[in-house]
Specification:
This protein has about 325 residues and is mainly alpha-helical. Helix content is about 55%, strand content about 5%. The chain is built from twelve helices and five strands. This is Tryptophan--tRNA ligase.
Length: about 325
């Protein structure tokens, strides 16, 4: 059976981008067709300046939202990365096959390091090695597929390179995974800056729809979205990025196609109004379920406890085998 692994990082409140680009497919498709693991990757949240209490809170919230989005622990494994030591154990081995140059070429590293420096902070070494830990997340489980938004494509490519290199040098230890992306909304853009990704760790609140935004807040954000000069509603990501983003969001929420939808609108106002309502309707069941789950925190804790146990059982044999393959002396 195909094995699937993916994760979300608790560095901010989860967004519509996370939902349309990843979580929705995990719930609607992946957990039904594959042996799937979904992880709150909390170790990754320590790679930039962080507040411990906030990371803990956001980790719990992300896990709750994964369940609220429809992940069913009877069908898939939901867990927290730091509960399973194998991620950090394997990451070190992969650091011994990865190179410094490879890490410095990662687009997200360059962007995030520049942002930290602009804020006057220093760049944590873990930010540089972030993609190696991500590779360990994936390779520890022998995942065949990694369903992610477009922004993670380069990291999954690196994971493939590391798996191939390790296998060639030390004997077959890892499955070489591939990234899969949704057909629409693989890159939801910021409503205020349609050339930038809608990212949860960004500060431009008005351009980001959070999964837990109240309906009126969602409406306000969508109605105030930056559109392009011109009046005609056309789908063109290059010359009309703002309108294209709205069309993609609407298409992703209603199951339509952005080009076809463009022909159905005569004004930006009507497009925005329909997009706002479509987003509100998509988020409604997630928010309702989230509220129910918050009333029963013991349930979420139980799911995470069982999930970590299952995940450990899957990762340990692979990571132990990699330790032996690379030349480390077994403990007994
Ligand atoms: P993260 O937490 O930034 O995002 C979680 C998932 O949401 C997708 N996504 C988007 N998709 C479309 N439009 C957007 N604006 C948007 N923003 C986010 C991401 O592509 C991702 O699929 N490095 C990863 C977390 C990670 C991981 C892993 C993922 C760590 N280890 C192993 C897969 C496998 C990240 O920062 O995702």
């Amino acid at each position: 059976m195909t094995r699937v692994f993916s994760g979300v990082k608790p560095t901010g409140h989860l967004t519509l981008g996370n939902y349309l680009g990843a979580m929705r497919q995990w719930a609607a498709v992946d957990q039904h067709r594959a042996e799937a693991l979904f992880c709150v990757v909390d170790l990754h949240a320590l790679t930039v300046d962080h507040d411990p209490a906030r990371v803990r809170r956001l980790s719990r919230q992300a896990a709750t939202l994964l369940l609220a989005a429809g992940l069913d622990p009877r069908l898939c494994t939901v867990f927290v990365q730091s509960h399973v030591d194998e991620h950090a154990r394997l990451s070190y081995l992969l650091e011994c096959v990865a190179t410094d140059g490879e890490m410095r070429r990662m687009i997200q590293y360059k962007e995030k390091a520049a942002r930290e420096q602009r804020r006057g902070g220093s760049v944590r070494l873990s930010l540089l090695t972030y993609p190696v830990l991500m590779a360990a997340d994936i390779l520890a489980y022998g995942a065949d597929e990694v369903p992610v938004g477009d922004d993670q494509a380069q990291h999954v490519e690196l994971t493939r390179d590391l798996a191939v290199r390790f296998n060639q040098r030390y004997g077959h230890a890892f499955v070489v995974p591939r990234a899969t992306h949704p057909t629409v909304a693989a890159r939801v853009m910021n409503l205020q800056e349609p050339l930038a990704k809608m990212g949860k760790s960004d500060d431009t609140g008005p351009g980001i729809v959070y999964l837990l935004d109240e309906p009126d807040v969602v409406r306000k954000k969508v109605m105030r979205a930056v559109t392009d000069s011109g009046r005609e509603v056309v789908y063109d990501r290059e010359s009309r990025p703002g309108v294209a983003n709205l069309l993609e969001i609407l298409a992703a929420c209603t199951g339509g196609n952005p080009e076809a939808l463009a022909g159905a609108y005569e004004s930006y106002g009507a497009l925005k109004a329909d997009t706002a309502e479509a987003v509100v309707e998509v988020l409604r069941p997630v928010q309702e379920r989230h509220k129910e789950l918050c009333a029963d925190p013991g349930h979420v804790e139980g799911v995470l406890r069982d999930g970590a146990e299952r995940a450990r059982g899957m990762a340990r044999p692979t990571v132990d085998a990699a330790y032996r393959a690379i030349g480390l002396l077994p403990a007994s």
